[in-house]
Amino acid sequence: FSHLKGLKTKIICDAGNGVAGITLEPIAKALGLEFNILYPNPDGEFPNHHPDPSEEENIKELKAALNSGYDLGFAFDGDADRIAVLTPKRSIKGDDLAYLYAKNMKNPRVLGEVKCSQNIYDEIDKIGKSFMGKTGHSNIKKAMKELNIDMAAEVSGHIFFKERFFGFDDAVYAMIRVLELVANGFDLDSELDKLPKLYSTDEMKIKTNEESKFKIIEALKVKLNQADNGLPKIIDIIDIDGVRIKFQNGWGLVRASNTTPVIVTRFEANSLENMQEIQNGVIALVENIMAKEI
Known about the structure:
- By secondary structure, this protein is α/β, with parallel strands linked by helices.
- The chain is 36% helix and 23% strand.
- It is built from 9 helices and 15 strands.
- β3 and β4 (83-86) form a beta hairpin.
- α3 runs parallel beside α4 (118-127) and α8 (210-224) crosses α9.
């Protein structure tokens, strides 16, 4: 990445007292970047904030710093395999990052997860080929090998590069690839503003127990195929990881967490009203099943 030397973009990072702090400073120095780092010293007690950049609470200080004269902000989780990318205008999720990266690749083959925005699949298919797979590190690594994937992404900020890299999720490397986009003339906000306007929720979690979470998903699959499910007309059901229910104006996701006793949901639509309608209908269906199941 020697071609990034002298890049004038003003950068602020939050290493969150995680391991990213070990490499960020020497890399920035070697590339001559205008760089500042919050909490660079690794400390397993995480004295300043929890190192999860997907939670709004943990990037408040980075946002405040970003608004004091920086162009780009980056935050990392504890082991530096997840990234958050911030401009003064927005926080860029992992699926939007995948789209931006793909714009700088030739015939990209990109793997997303079931939580990714529909925009990403639709837009990447115009310049390459997109694939939808299961959430989770091992699932993604397996699918990348089987499908000859150039890059994979999770909404949470795991970005796996095989093109020009080794196929694993290194957030410091992902940061440098964002800087390369900027150096190549990409205006991140303008590129994302060109996408069709969609409205989406963050992940919403419904507490349950380990014994019930998969039974709830199976019961939901049955209910979705019944006429009295109380939902708008269903266009398609993708059941590779829970159920992603596609409607005319949006989609809803319901899946059992791989690691905790919760049901994970996410919703997206072409208007706030449609998103709310889908969300309310699907959540009501899940809660009705849970009342009988638990």
